[in-house]
Write a structure and sequence with these properties.
Blueprint lengths: L1 H30 L3 H13 L3 H13 L7 H13 L3 H13 L7 H13 L3 H13 L7 H12 L4 H13 L7 H13 L3 H11 L4 H19 L11
Helix pairs in contact: 1-2, 2-3, 3-4, 4-5, 5-6, 6-7, 7-8, 8-9, 9-10, 10-11, 10-12
Length: 239
């Protein structure tokens, strides 16, 4: 029996490797503009109930890669991926519900899907959820919740979340107002090429002394290195 179980385990692992290789082949083909090959592989994987392929095939339908744009079909594929626990599918379906494309606009449904995706660690979903809380879109406005979700995304080096954290510190929303922290997060976002953060950092700098700027820049660089090393967990350790 142990030998049989071992053989089954090996076969399953081998099959999983083949499926992932097929998915990567499809992704590579799509990136190269060979949509016919990509569609062939994605459709095959979807027929075999492979969640990640549902997301990628949904993207092709949503944005019209190799076939007419069809957000309704994309929503159907994303929904199938959601049932299989695919974070990317949750995020993609949330954006459709938020914009009312292919489905009836439902902001609360969008928030729910963003949250499910965010809890699985998808930085883009964490950021979007932070925006929803900051703006009170589909939820009661809550800057504290926005700060928490931005921080989670910022810890994954998501520049837009780092910039939005700077804005919260600049305005004192959900956190104590701090030009220094605004400067630090703007600098970190600027390290990642965020142009608006670069402009905001210069505005912060006008409110600081040269010694304060030097100290804050050193803190920003230290924070950035922690993020790159995967060792930043948030100031309140709640990530």
């Amino acid at each position: 029996m142990k030998h049989i179980l071992k053989i089954i385990t090996i076969c399953l692992a081998f099959t999983s490797c083949l499926v992932k290789a097929d998915l990567q082949q499809a992704i590579d083909a799509a990136n190269e503009g060979d949509f016919e090959t990509a569609l062939f592989h994605f459709n095959y994987l979807v027929e075999n109930n492979y969640g990640p392929a549902m997301y990628h095939l949904g993207q092709m339908h949503e944005f019209g890669y190799g076939l007419p744009r069809n957000p309704k079909k994309a929503a159907e594929l994303y929904a199938k991926g959601v049932k299989l626990g695919e974070a990317d599918a949750m995020f993609a379906l949330a954006t459709l519900y938020q914009d009312g494309k292919g489905v009836k606009k439902d902001l609360q449904k969008a928030v729910s899907l963003y949250e499910s995706s965010a809890k699985k660690g998808l930085a883009a979903a964490q950021f979007n959820l932070g925006v929803m809380y900051a703006n009170g879109t589909g939820v009661i406005q809550d800057f504290y919740a926005a700060k928490d979700w931005y921080t989670k995304a910022a810890a994954q080096n998501y520049a837009a979340a780092q910039f939005n954290l700077a804005l919260l510190y600049f305005e004192g929303q959900g956190v104590d107002k701090s030009i220094e922290m605004s400067f630090i997060w703007n600098t970190v976002a600027e390290f990642n090429g965020h142009k608006d953060a670069s402009h905001s950092r210069k505005l912060d700098e006008r409110k600081m002394s040269p010694s304060q700027v030097k100290e804050a820049f050193e803190k920003a660089n230290e924070l950035y290195q922690k993020i790159l090393a995967g060792k930043y967990y948030g100031d309140d350790r709640r990530i």
